[in-house]
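pinned: reference chain
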Amino acid sequence: MFHLEPLHTPTLALVLGLVLFTASGIMTLVGLTQRTYRGYWWWTVAQWANTISAVALLFKDAHPVMLPVSVLLSLQWPLTMLGGMRRFYVRSNLPTEPWVDYFLLFIGFSGWMWVWLANPDDVGARVAVFSLVNICGYLYCAWIVSCIRDWRQSVYLKVILFFLLGGAIFQVPRMLTGMASWGMTVHDTSLIQLPSAMLGLVIGVMFSVYMCLLLTYERTEHDLRESHRQLRVLADFDMLTQVPNRRHFNEIASQTMRLCSPGSASLMLFDIDHFKQINDEFGHGAGDEALKLVAGGARKMLRSRDLLGRIGGDEFIALLPETSVNDALHVADRMVRHVDTERLALQQAPLSLSFGVVQVMPGESLPEATHRADQALFEAKRQGRSRAVAAEATDGEAVFTSTRPFGMSTH
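pinned: its structure tokens
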């Protein structure tokens, strides 16, 4: 039969210190070489404080004052980690203020100090109080973490929550053992240095380091996705008018045309009459406001399935699925009336719009339909502007079939 000798607690404390030093070094190295976020250095400080706690424990026999130093630095760990969480998730509306964390640490450590000073040889009392304070700290931190806005969406926050609850449960047997020995003079201090507790601390620290790094990488991944989304918006939309640019409009309009019944969609090309004069007489700011006014009015008059885009300068394009040319002319009429009403309300410079409207023919591509609409728009300009001209295709040539004048102001 083999007889297993009990683990040598000073050796375990030394190993614990080395593991904590390694974990703290990793956190520091990542913080110095990688992108981190608010709260990360709080987590790093918590790990270094735990490392110092283990080192102080090695010298407690020669220097008794090292024992309360070790206890204080050990008790701070969950609350300092929580301080990092508060800053990492700064937008979460948590139920307590940060000062409550420090107050709880002060109360817990003061209770332990009172027991220690009352009877330094009552190891059971010290262990019971230490474990009880740890249990309260873990449960308090678990409660705060459960109030973080993102915890339901973040797998890592859920794991941290269960870890904190597990840490509280892990301390219960040790607290009961200490309570059973309360009031007894115990010269063997191994009770407070239980190997299982020390090994549990090693596992907990390594787990927390791993979770902190995962939370940091999760935030980095989220920021990268958000940056990609913003870049996609910048690439697809005109920032001034908030409508699709030429490239993106062509993409989505071509897809929409393939889904529409052949020959059922109408295409409108329109621009602001004498736009250069608006810029010259009233400034480019007035020109920008005019573009935003027209784009906003067009969005309000179009249906959710209609597509609007800015294809350059003051020129806009709209694809109206399942819409006849006559209906498109009515849309243009409502659009110019709405824009004129808004313009008067905002006391902006006078402007008018011209439209070229075509029915997309079966088998006709978007560039071909756009070319015919451009010809109709040119005809609207030739006829005096502030009007909509409809065109049909006959043998590849645009035939202008109707003209609808508008009563908007022109220069």
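why pinned: The radius of gyration is 36 Å. Residues 9-234 form one domain.
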